[in-house]
# Entry
Amino acid sequence: MAVALVWLRDDLRLDDQPALRAALERGWLPVPVYIHAPDDEGDWAPGAASDAWRRRSLAALAAELERRGSRLLLLHGPTLGTLQALAALTGAEAVLWTRRYEPAIEQRDAKIKRALRQAGLHAESFNGALLFEPWELATRQGDPYRVFTPFWRSARAAWRAPRTWDAPARLPSPDEAGVPHGVPLDDVLPAPRPAWDAGFWDRFVPGEAGARRALAHFVEHALGDYAAARDMAGEPGTSRLSPHLHFGEVSVQRVAAAVLAAGEAVAAADRDRFLAELGWREFAHHVLHHYPHVPGRNLDPRFEAFAWANPSPAKLQAWREGRTGVPIVDAGMRELWHTGWMHNRVRMIVASWLTKHLRLHWEHGARWFWDTLVDADLANNTQGWQWTAGTGADAAPYFRIFNPVAQAAKFDPDGAYIARWVPELAPLPVPARFAPWEHPDLLRRLAPAYPRRPQVDLAAGRQGALDAFAALRSPAL
# Structure
């Protein structure tokens, strides 16, 4: 049987896996291969938290393949030379993969496809990550969408749910074609020493089976109240599927199908609100494809002249470590450090504090999230930071400045989220947890280790941001 290399990247699954499906349907013996090549990723090589997740996901995928009679071939990069050498060694006729949309990866993959085809191989890529390819949706003028609402309206009108594909119970073994074994997982991605990621796995189970369980749990227990509960920081109201989607452990088509299959058991408002969140993920990838400069530059060019503050290492480090003196901000940053994840509402709050009250460039935050989030996705991370900073596609206006005290009172009304992640504030009565500097006697007696005041006065920080924005809008003299 002729061999096809099924080149896996951020599509670490067998279910609804288009490259694997194509190999089987065309009569090739699929050889699943993962090539670790962080140097190919340009300025955005995966961060530490991503690598910690990827290591476990690869182990889970290898076990799933072995259970079906196949195996995962793990190799080091550089990618093109490794694929060429492996194809020559195995006599492969084809190399199949699912597409990625990061700028450096798109450029690399185009070169790889050309080189493989020039060598006489069948090289083909598939959509395995999005509902629509970025070139399939456009405005009436033929331009990319930069505003979410018309984008999503167009997408919903055009979307026809495809039939998803179930992985077969058995797969042919690469041993049949004399395919060699690769390198051990520990040589590709060693386990963290010390195990700083231990807290991640209390919340998440990487791998395809973990993704299926997370999806089923969400549909059964949280989808029915999603519209109301998704913003509540202390409640399990979100899907927590983002890392599974980023690593391709479940397809977005499978997720959408599961939500729609809930039918009348779930109110339309809850179902539609969650599908719109999938739409924001889609929108972010489309923006990244069409505007590949956005990971390092403002989409709105006006902000190239904005008076960002000079970064104070002490203030930036205090923000990273959850020592800002603003409880909801500190809670979010500590949750991130301990679990590799942060509630989406809190992500906006901590980003607003950094880019508005501290007036630091959003890339400082984007880089920190990139290294510490298990769901660090270049499209979503960039879109989220530029949205909050007011510099990106369909962004909140810069003058929209979250008041972290009001946000905490609204989205953590019982103070449970703050008490969990900033336990030194747990002895304070609930109202004092939101703005402890307003209760100096209580703070001194019950939480002496917590900062006496925020790293910047809330009113002064807000006014500084507004003044900088007003100067940006004023015509030059």
